[in-house]
Amino acid sequence: MSESRRERRLAEKAEKKAQKKSERHSPPLKLRGLPRRDCGACTVCCTSLGVPEVNKPRDIECSHLCGQGCGIYESRPESCRVFDCLWKQGIFETEHRPDQLGVLFTVTGQGSAFGRQCLVVHEAWPGGFENARPVLQHLSETQLLILVGEGTSRRLLGPPHLLAQAQRVLSRTLPVLQGT
Ligand code: SF4
Ligand code: SF4
C-alpha cells in the first residue's frame, strides 16, 4: 500500500473513532416537545426560506404574502404545505415563536454532511441571532448548530469536540454546506 493511501486509511480510522467518541458524549439529537402549535401572526418562513415552486429565493419576502398571510393559501405550493418549523412542531417554549425569538429552527437529516443530525438556525430578521443568543448558547452546549445568515453566510456553534469534528469534515467538503 502506498504511503499516501496508508495515511488516508489511518486518518479515516481516527475520524470514525472520534465520531463514535463524540456520539457517546453527545447523543443524537432528540427533540421532545409540547403539542403542535398554530403559526398565529408569524410568517417568518415566507421570507426566510426559499420556495422553488414560486421562484422565491431565501431572505426575500414572498410576493404572495399579504396582510392576512398567504394570498394563495388554498393553492399554495407543496413545499409550503408540508413545512413546519420546529417551534410549530411543539419544540421550544411558547415565547420562542420565530418572529419573536429572531430565529427559525429546522433540522438536518441523520445523514447530514457531519454524519449526525444538526439544528439549522435561520436568522428571521437582522439582529435575530443576537436576540436569540441565550437560547443558542444553551443549545450549543450539547448540539451542533448551523447558523444560516444572509446570503451564503454560515457559522457553526457547538461543544468543542463536535466543532473539531465538523471542522475536519469541512476541510474536505466545504462546498457541501453552501446549499444548506
Ligand atoms: S416560521 Fe414556523 S411558526 Fe412561523 S410561519 Fe413558518 S411554520 Fe409557522
Ligand atoms: S406561497 Fe404562501 S405559504 Fe408559500 S411562501 Fe409564499 S406566502 Fe408563504
The pLDDT mean sits at 83
Tell me roughly what share of residues is in helical segments.
Answer: 25-40%
DSSP, total strands: 6
What share of residues are in beta strands?
5-15%
Radius of gyration: 19 Å
Identify low-pLDDT runs.
22-28, 175-180
Ligand set: iron/sulfur cluster
Largest sheet: 4 strands, mixed
Features:
elongated, alpha+beta, disordered C terminus, two-stranded antiparallel sheet, 4-stranded mixed sheet
Please characterize this protein's 3D structure.
The chain is an alpha+beta fold and 180 residues long. It folds into two domains: 40-83, no CATH class; 85-180, no CATH class. The protein has seven helices and six strands. The strands form two sheets. Strands 3-4-5-6 form a four-stranded mixed sheet. The chain has a two-stranded antiparallel sheet with strand order 1-2. The chain starts with a helix and ends in a 7-residue tail after the last helix. The model is unreliable at 22-28 and 175-180 (pLDDT under 50). It binds iron/sulfur cluster (2 copies). Residues 46, 51, 54, 56, 62, 64-65, 70, 72, 76-77, 80 line the site of one iron/sulfur cluster. Residues 39, 42-45, 84-85, 87-88, 97-98, 104 line the site of one iron/sulfur cluster.
Summarize the topology.
Blueprint: H1 3-25, H2 45-48, E1 65-66, E2 69-70, H3 78-82, H4 98-101, E3 103-107, E4 119-123, H5 128-131, H6 133-139, E5 145-148, E6 154-157, H7 160-173
Parallel strand pairs: 4-5
Antiparallel strand pairs: 1-2, 3-4, 5-6
